Amino acid sequence: MLKAAGTGLLFLVIGGLLAITIVPRFLDRIYYEGPAGDHFNGARFFNPDGDADTVRPPTGGSRGGFFWRYLTGGDGRPAWPAAVPVTQTRPLPQVEGERMRATWIGHASVLVQTQGLNILTDPIWSNRAGPFGFGPGRVTAPGVRLEDLPRIDLVLVSHNHYDHLDKATLKRLWERDRPLIVTSLGNDSVIGQAGVPSTALDWGQSVTVKPGVAVAVSRNHHWGSRWFSDRNRALWSAFTVTLPGGNLFFAGDTGMGDGNWPREAAAHGPVRLALIPVGAFRFVPGQMGTGSHIGPADAVRVFNRLGAAHAIPIHWGTFRLSYEGRETPVRMLEAILRQTGGDPARFAAVTVGAPVEVPAYTPPARQPDEALIDAALRSPEVMALP
Q: Sheet containing 206-210: which strands, arranged edge to edge?
C-alpha cells in the first residue's frame, strides 16, 4: 500500500514538473517572426516609451489577486445595471462623397460611412469578451444587429485582446462581405485561426483602400495577449484613414505613454473625426488613468494633440472591465472639457445605435487648456463621480 502510494505521489510530482515545463509553451504562441527593431526584440513587441506601466497590476499586489477580486466582485466597485435598453437601428447601405456618418455599435466598435465605404472598428458582437465563453458579459447590446449591417468594406483591428479581436464576429463578416481587414503585425496569425485573411502592418506602414483613401498604422501605448504566456507576441496600434474631406483617427486601446503618439498621427493630415477611448480607467477609488488605458483626462489631452475637429468617446459602458460607474467616463469627460475651456459638443457621448452626421472639417476654434486639466480633476464635480 505504501509502495503504491509512493509510486502515485512520484507520478504526481513528475506530472506537475512536466506541466510546469510543457503547459506554458503550449499556451504560448509565435504570432510573428521578423528582425529586431525599435519596438520588437526578435521575440516580443514592446512600447519604445516604456512598458513598466503596462506590466504591473493597476492596484498593486499580485496580478492573480487583482483578477480574483475582480471576478468575485470583492473590490468594492460601484454597481452597474444588469442590462441597458438599446434601440437597434439599420444603417444606410452607403454614404457617398465627403458626407460622413458614424454609428457607435458599442465598446470600441464604430461604423463609419463615407466616400462610399463602410468602415468598422474592432468589431465585437459576442456576448462575452474572453476565451471559451468566459469573460466579462455584455451589458449593452450592439446598437446594430450584425445581420443589419451594410456590406462592410474595411475592418480595423487594433490588437488581440478579446474585447477587440473577436474571431467569431470577424469570421461572420468575412464569410458575408470579404472586407479588407487591416491590423498590426502578428494579429493576422490570430485572425487566421478563424480562417480569415488580413493585412498586417507595422507602425509607419500604410495600405491603399482605393484612390484617395488609405489606412496608416501608427504607434499607441498598450500590450497584447490571448493566453497567459503569449504576452506581446503581436503588436498593438492606432489607425488613421486618410480621406479627402479630413481624416478618420481610431486610437484603438491605449494608455498615454509619452503622450507624443497623437501628434505623430496628426502628421497624416487634419483629423475630422477621432474615436478615442475614455473608459476602463479606474481600478482603485479615485484613480484617473492606468498605464494601459487612458481615462477622460488623458482622452482630452489626446483630443487636443490630434487637433481633431470632432471626436466620439468609445470603450465605455458595454463591458464592465474596471472600477468606475458606467456613466462616469462620459460625465467626467464633459466636466473636464467644460472646465478647461474646450467645447463639450465637439467630443460628446453618442447613443448606442444612433447614427450621427459628422460635420465637414473645420479647424477647431478653441482647444482645451491642458494646464487646467489637473485642477479640473480636483474639482468637487469630478471628485464626486463614482
A: 206-210, 213-218, 238-242, 247-250, 271-277, 310-314
The kind and range of the H/E element at 238 are: strand 238-242
Instruction: Supply the DSSP symbol for 31.
Output: -
CA distance 311 to 100: 13
Q: How many Cα atoms are found within 13 Å in the side-chain-facing hemisphere of 62?
A: 4
CA–CA distance, 301 with 370 (Å, rounded to integer): 7
Closest CA to 242 of 222, 270, 202: 270
C-alpha cell at 305: 494633440
| Order of strands, sheet of 356-358, starting from the edge strand that comes earlier in the sequence | 199-201, 180-184, 154-156, 117-121, 109-114, 100-106, 356-358
User: What are the DSSP E strand ranges found in 147-236?
Assistant: 154-156, 180-184, 199-201, 206-210, 213-218
Alpha carbons 191 and 123: distance in angstroms, whole number: 12
Distance CA 95, CA 190 (A): 31
Q: With H, G, I as helix, E, B as strand and everything else as coil, classify residue 249.
A: strand
Taking a C-beta distance cutoff of 8 angstroms, is the pair 352, 315 a contact? no
pTM: 0.91
CA angle, 158 as apex, 360 and 356 as ends, to 5°?
30
Give the H or E element holding residue 167. Answer: helix 167-177
β pairing state of 238-242 and 213-218: antiparallel
Q: What is the pLDDT of residues 116-174, one digit of tens each?
A: 999 999 999 999 999 988 899 999 999 999 999 999 999 999 999 999 999 999 999 99
